């Protein structure tokens, strides 16, 4: 069916169920960032394949919301259909739930599939819509009967993630989960986030794009653990190993029944941001519920000594791949074969040659010229452009290795840079250095660090619209909570062992964008009479673009920082490079005057 045919069929079903509007988000029952094909109903309905967006269909209108990463792609993919594009974040563009509030009347009913709607979202929407007596139904999935060619649920085989990489056994992790349950006053806990389950049970798979996870749920009590996963995903050897560690297996769809059978006296810990409305409603209503973040979220964010040792090795491997890529790029003559997509393919080839590489940690961002001004632009065959010597090229990419996950961004100049580009790059670099060199007291939150990255841009009346940094998993999801470095006052402290990113940027719409990203590890700095202080250790080794640095805008301390960092890049990476590339790297890391 074409998009408008899908809309017509959907509206017939809406009329039959007396539904005034249906909301189709980009989500799955685990609130995953990267959604498998089986749950990409919004993409199926709209034709827009970006990772983030919400579709709303009423009897007379069809609207798609997505953020600035995907405005270009969405505009192309929905062109010719009834869907209107609402650019989230633009002035005077309301959120979809506010738009529904403004456009529906009393007694109207909105339908959202409660299996993919979080408990927090359900509460938020009900609270707003109740003001106008707009009803919310979460028991309908109207798309399901129309989606004839829906991809099946992924069925990758689960496999044991060896403790030599994980650094901690699942028995130890389960015990720590139970301690956290007790501290929260709960005696049972439903775990829903796929990355939390992968970390807790030392399991990996390939059920989600660029995320080595298995689709599953878990249910903990103080005396038992059940893993709800399709039986065909678990080999006999793995099942035996899990059983030896006290883990009982159950079918993936059995979770609702298990929650309904919890004893009346139970107190259930659940994360309302990660637990679906339907799953929460399946819990025995006599149970008491404690709503708090999943204990695994913080536990997995703090890397152990074995993981940190592996991460340091991984930083070298990834540095080799990225530096070889930048050298390759520097030697290319502009022609029709050199495009954003072909550049991404080359970088994958170079990473894939590194020991322990498994897959990309996300779809790489390869953005040339005006595309680089779209913060998280994703090249498609429709948007792919040729690279020539007339602009800036932004590459944001990462790898999932058995020994850790990486995320790096560099911006390089293809051709001769303008004075404005040089100034902008240098201001971004100054902010990057300010974060990398920060020393801060224990208990500091990310929003307190965030201003360091922006101060030099602010002084020029400039800013960037994304956060400065996020947590990074260990051979897991490239975006990991609970801590982040952003203007949002997230109440999660930066703790020793957390792996974060440092990625300020600046974006001039229609011209170019600049972003510089390293991973940094939170480590001890010093203990004084004023308390314990922390700092960042660099975990990314790749040079900055010296042709875009204006040393007159740098302090002596900043120049010294760059020179020291470049010396470390050369010393750590050059021994593993062919002599020709090592010689090139030496010129790129030479001392700044």
From TrEMBL:
EC number: 3.4.11.9
Domain Creatinase N-terminal: 7-128
Record GO terms (molecular function): metal ion binding; metalloaminopeptidase activity
Domain Peptidase M24 C-terminal, first and last residues per copy: 533-590
InterPro entries membership: Creatin/AminoP/Spt16_N, Creatinase/aminopeptidase-like, Creatinase_N, Pept_M24, Pept_M24B, Peptidase_M24_C, X-Pro_aminopeptidase_P
Enzyme class (EC, first level): hydrolase
Residues covered by the Peptidase M24 domain: 319-524
SUPFAM superfamilies, A to Z: Creatinase/aminopeptidase, Creatinase/prolidase N-terminal domain
One Pfam family of this chain: Creatinase_N_2
CDD domains for this protein: APP
A Gene Ontology cellular-component term: cytoplasm
Coiled coil: none
Keywords: Aminopeptidase, Hydrolase, Metal-binding, Protease
Family: Belongs to the peptidase M24B family.
The protein, known as: Xaa-Pro aminopeptidase, M24 family protein PepP
Organism: Desulfotignum phosphitoxidans DSM 13687
């Amino acid at each position: 069916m074409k998009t408008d045919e899908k809309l017509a069929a959907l509206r017939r079903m809406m009329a039959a169920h007396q539904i005034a509007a249906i909301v189709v988000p980009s989500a799955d029952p685990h609130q995953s960032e990267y959604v498998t094909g089986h749950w990409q109903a919004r993409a199926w309905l709209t034709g827009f394949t970006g990772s983030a967006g919400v579709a709303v269909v009423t009897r007379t209108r069809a609207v798609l919301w997505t953020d600035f990463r995907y405005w270009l792609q969405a505009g192309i993919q929905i062109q010719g259909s009834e869907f209107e594009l609402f650019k989230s974040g633009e002035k005077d563009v309301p959120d979809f739930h506010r738009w529904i509030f403004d456009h529906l009347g009393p007694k109207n009913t909105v339908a959202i599939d409660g299996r993919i709607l979080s408990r927090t979202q359900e509460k938020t929407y009900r609270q707003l819509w109740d003001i106008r007596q707009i009803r919310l139904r979460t028991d309908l999935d109207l798309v399901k009967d129309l989606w004839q060619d829906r991809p099946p649920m992924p069925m990758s085989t689960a496999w044991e993630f060896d403790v030599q990489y994980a650094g901690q056994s699942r028995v130890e992790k389960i015990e720590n989960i139970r301690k956290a349950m007790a501290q929260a006053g709960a005696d049972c806990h439903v775990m829903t986030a796929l990355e939390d389950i992968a970390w807790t049970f030392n399991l990996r798979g390939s059920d989600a794009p660029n995320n080595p996870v298995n689709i599953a749920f878990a249910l903990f009590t103080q005396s038992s653990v059940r893993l709800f996963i399709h039986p065909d995903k678990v080999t006999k050897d793995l099942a035996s190993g899990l059983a030896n560690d006290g883990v009982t297996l159950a079918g993936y769809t059995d979770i609702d029944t298990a929650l309904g059978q919890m004893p009346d006296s139970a107190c259930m810990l659940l994360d309302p941001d990660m637990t679906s409305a339907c799953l929460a409603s399946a819990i025995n209503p006599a149970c008491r519920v404690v709503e708090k973040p999943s204990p695994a979220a913080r536990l997995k964010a703090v890397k152990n000594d074995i993981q940190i040792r592996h991460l340091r090795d991984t930083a070298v491997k990834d540095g080799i791949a990225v530096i070889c890529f930048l050298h390759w790029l520097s030697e290319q003559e502009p022609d029709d074969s050199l495009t954003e997509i072909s550049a991404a393919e080359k970088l994958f080839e170079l990473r894939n040659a590194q020991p322990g590489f498994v897959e990309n940690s996300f779809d790489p961002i390869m953005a040339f010229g005006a595309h680089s001004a779209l913060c998280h632009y994703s090249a498609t065959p429709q948007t792919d452009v040729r690279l020539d010597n007339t602009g800036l090229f932004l590459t944001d990419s990462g790898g999932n290795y058995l020994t850790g996950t990486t995320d790096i961004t560099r911006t390089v100049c293809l051709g001769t840079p303008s004075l404005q580009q040089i100034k902008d790059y240098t201001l971004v670099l100054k902010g990057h250095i300010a974060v990398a060199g920060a020393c801060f007291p224990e208990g500091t939150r990310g929003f307190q660090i965030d201003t360091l990255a922006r101060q030099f841009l602010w002084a020029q009346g400039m800013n960037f619209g994304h956060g400065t940094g996020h947590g990074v998993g260990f051979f897991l999801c490239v975006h990991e909570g609970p801590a982040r470095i952003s203007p949002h006052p997230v109440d999660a402290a930066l703790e020793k062992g957390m792996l974060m990113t440092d990625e300020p940027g600046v974006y001039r719409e229609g011209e170019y964008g600049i972003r510089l990203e390293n991973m940094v590890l939170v480590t001890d700095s010093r203990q004084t009479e004023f308390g314990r202080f922390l700092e960042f250790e660099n975990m990314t080794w790749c040079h900055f673009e010296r042709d875009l640095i204006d040393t007159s805008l740098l302090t002596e301390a900043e120049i010294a920082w760059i020179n020291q960092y470049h010396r470390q890049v050369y010393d750590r990476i050059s021994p593993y490079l062919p002599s020709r590339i090592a010689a090139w790297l030496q010129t790129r890391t030479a001392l700044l005057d």
